[in-house]
Amino acid sequence: MHHFPYAGFEPVEVPDKNLIPVGRPDRRGSPEAVRVLEDALSAPEGTERLRSLAKGRRSALVLVDDATRPTPAHLMAPLVVEELMRGGLREEQIAFLCAGGSHRSMTEEEKVRKVGEDIAARFKVHDHEWDKEGVLVGLGRTEDGVDVVVNRLAREADLLVGLGQVCPHRVSGFSGGSKIVLPGICGQRTVGQTHWLSTYYPIEEIFGVRDNPVRKRMDDVARVVGLDFVLNVVMDEEGRVMGAVAGDFVAAHRKAARLAMEVNVVYLPRRADIVIADSRPCDRDFWQASKALASCSLSVRPGGDVIIATPCAEGIATDHPQVEEHGYSSAEEVTREVEGGRFEDLTGAAHICHTRRVLDHAHCVLVSPGIGAERGARAKLPVVVSAGEAVREAFRRQGDDASVLILEHCADTFPIVDSRPQR
Question: Which residues, 6 or more positions from 310, have their beta carbon under 8 angstroms from its beta carbon?
Answer without folding.
Answer: 6, 278, 279, 282, 283, 286, 289, 292, 366, 367, 368, 370
